[in-house]
Amino acid sequence: MSESILNIRVYYEDTDSGGVVYHANYLKFMERGRTEWLRERGFNLDVLNHEYSVIFVVRTIQLEYLHPGRFNDCLKVYTRLLRHGGASLYFEQTIIQRDQGNNLCHATVKVACLNAHTFRPCPMPKKVISTLF
Q1: Could you give the CA distance from residue 36 to residue 98 in angstroms, rounded to a whole number?
Q2: Sign of CA dihedral 98, 101, 107, 112
Q3: According to the model, what pLDDT value does residue 1 have?
Q4: Using CA atoms, how far apart are residues 41 and 60, in angstroms rounded to an integer?
């Protein structure tokens, strides 16, 4: 399935006192990557909420840290849909340093589709399924 690439620069606020990307910030970078993956396919999260009454939430994530990112690095966040279920999306995400090519971290992420009012799992809207797949 198609891949999305998001370019990010590491700012001082993204790092710990040693100038290394704080581990939780990789999750933020990946969240941005999945959001842009959806946006590139014509879906904004706020529109999905308001028009279809659905939200997407991370259900599980398996993340492996491989190499440290540092202050002022330029990163690429690769996001690829692996598969989907009726109420879930499975992504593979990798973050690399643009200049050095080091693979910083790799994750598999299961995202669940929930009813925006009840927060219970629900099927993805037909328009989303027909557009994405």
Answers
A1: 18
A2: positive
A3: 59
A4: 23
Fold (topology level) of 3-132: Thiol Ester Dehydrase; Chain A (3.10.129)
CB atoms within 10 A of CB 2: 10
What is the three-class DSSP state of 89? Answer: strand
Contact 106, 27 (CB under 8 A): no
User: What radius of gyration, in Å, describes the C-alpha atoms of the chain?
Assistant: 16
**In the chain, domain spans:** 3-132
Rounded CA-CA distance 104/114 in Å is: 31
* pLDDT string in tens for the chain (133-residue length): 589 999 999 999 999 999 999 999 999 999 999 999 999 999 999 999 999 999 999 999 999 999 999 999 999 999 999 999 999 999 999 999 998 899 999 999 999 999 999 999 999 999 888 887 7
Catalytic residues: 16
Q: E strands within 23-121?
A: 54-65, 74-84, 88-97, 103-115
Asked whether 82 and 3 are in contact (CB, 8 A), the reply is no
